[in-house]
Amino acid sequence: MNPNFGKSGQPMRRLEDDRLLRGQGRFVDNLNFSKQAYLHVVRSYLGHAKIKNIIIDSISGMSGVLAVFTGEDLARDGILPIPMTLPYKRPGGEPALSAPYHALAQERVRFVGQPVAVVVAESKAEALEAGECLEIEFEEIPAVTDLQQAAVPDAPRLCDELTDNIGAAQTEGDAEEVEQAFAQAEHVTRMELVNNRVVGSPLEPRGLLCEAYQNTEKLILHSMHQSATRLHSVLCAVFQLEPEQLQIIVRDIGGGFGTKVAVHPEDILVVYAAKKLKRPVKWTATR
Q: Is 29 helix (H, G, I), strand (E, B) or coil?
């Protein structure tokens, strides 16, 4: 019998603690390859705006810069938006709908922090410096930051394909039984509950490193993802790859809190940059 597990029904000993406490964990940022480049994401500082112009020439001659990619580049290369994989429904019962979620915004940004462009450079510092110097012209348009305001009929529309901003809704229980219970209650109290936005923030930030080389079309993505199969299927769909063209390797993940289950724009962007440049490309999230 394996002493680490004991008898059935007993608590199991944790197997990874000793290695991690000794500093022997191996995360994506510990990996480095020859001719590795670094990716920096340039993000929107506005909640809702039209993208009027991205002036690539403003940084193309800066030290170490290898490439600058925008949403137009991804569209030109046929990169598909991130698919909606959860089976939500609109209030009328039709499938949930939202604006296509491209890895890089196309024509319009819809939230603060949305990726607008990426800079790939020889070093992390050069990518960051060039990204901060990239000139982008926005035309700011009205935004909503409150759920109730977003649901009113005349709220600024975030998705042109919808008549309102309600992309999905979910109702549980029997409405008639609930109304009957309230009608028979001796006292009824009304209150408004606000569910504040909560975001997971693990000590170990997300990291990605994609291997791509001149002599092969196969891509190898090193990722700190909690669902390698989901990531693999989504990336194959977005890039229209055969399954054997992409390998995903997951080592230590660290904390997740759900943030490393979803497929994020950076997952697409690192693969795209490596594929275009035919060399390894790394990105590590900041805290």
A: helix
DSSP-derived letter for residue 46 is S
Write the CATH number of the domain with boundaries 27-159+201-284.
Answer: 3.90.1170.50
pLDDT tens digits along 153-201: 899 998 887 788 988 888 889 999 999 999 999 999 999 888 888 888 8
DSSP character at residue 30: G
Give the separation between CA 254 and CA 43, rounded to whole angstroms. 25
Run of H or E residues at 117: strand 115-121
Is residue 179 exposed (0-12), middle (13-18) or buried (19+ Cβ within 10 Å)?
A: exposed
Straight-line distance from the first to the last Cα atom of the chain, in angstroms, rounded to the nearest whole number: 43
Per residue in 212-224, pLDDT tens?
A: 999 999 999 999 9
Q: Are the beta carbons of 72 and 121 closer than 8 angstroms?
A: no
> Would you state the structure tokens that stand for residue 133, as one six-digit string?
């110097």
What gap in Å lies between CA 48 and CA 163, rounded to an integer? 18
**Contact call for residues 57 and 122 (beta carbons, < 8 A):** no
CA distances from 189 to 52, 170, 178, 196 (A): 50, 24, 14, 22
Q: What pTM value is reported for the model?
A: 0.90
Domain ranges of the chain: 27-159+201-284
